[in-house]
Amino acid sequence: MGKQVNPRRVSENEALAVGNMLRGSPQKLNLVAETIRGLPVEKALASLRFNRRGAAEQVRKVLESAVANAENNHNLDVDQLVVAEASVGKALVMKRFRARARGRVGKILKPFSRLRIVVREVEEK
């Protein structure tokens, strides 16, 4: 008797990729993620490639991972994929301190984020 199979977290026509511990605040990462929600994958990748924000490269890598998961693990057609969900959450925050005048300290917060992208295969109309 072996270990039970882990149930799928998404439906049969969807694939998932999660980026953990992405450096940058969730607010800044969400600004980039909301630009690709609902777009076809090829348009979303083109949009991220020419986006000027620094977080766009991290979002692009997670999106490419979701597309690769859809193709290799779930046998979905890459040409019919749409970004169904792109959600951003908080991960840990590194706390650092910097010496300031008169014996005081300045708090430096270095936030990390978590990005979850779900791509869905849709039928062409």
UniProtKB/TrEMBL annotation:
- Mind naming one GO cellular-component term on file for this protein? cytosolic large ribosomal subunit
Q: Which GO terms describe its biological process?
A: translation
Q: Which UniProt keywords apply?
A: Ribonucleoprotein, Ribosomal protein, RNA-binding, rRNA-binding
| Highest taxon in the source lineage | Bacteria
Q: Name one GO molecular function term.
A: structural constituent of ribosome
State the PANTHER family in the record: CHLOROPLAST 50S RIBOSOMAL PROTEIN L22-RELATED (PTHR13501), LARGE RIBOSOMAL SUBUNIT PROTEIN UL22M (PTHR13501:SF8)
Relate the assembly described in the record: Part of the 50S ribosomal subunit.
Q: What does this protein do?
A: This protein binds specifically to 23S rRNA; its binding is stimulated by other ribosomal proteins, e.g., L4, L17, and L20. It is important during the early stages of 50S assembly. It makes multiple contacts with different domains of the 23S rRNA in the assembled 50S subunit and ribosome. The globular domain of the protein is located near the polypeptide exit tunnel on the outside of the subunit, while an extended beta-hairpin is found that lines the wall of the exit tunnel in the center of the 70S ribosome.
Indicate what this protein is called per its UniProt record.
Large ribosomal subunit protein uL22
Q: Which species is this record about?
A: Iodidimonas gelatinilytica
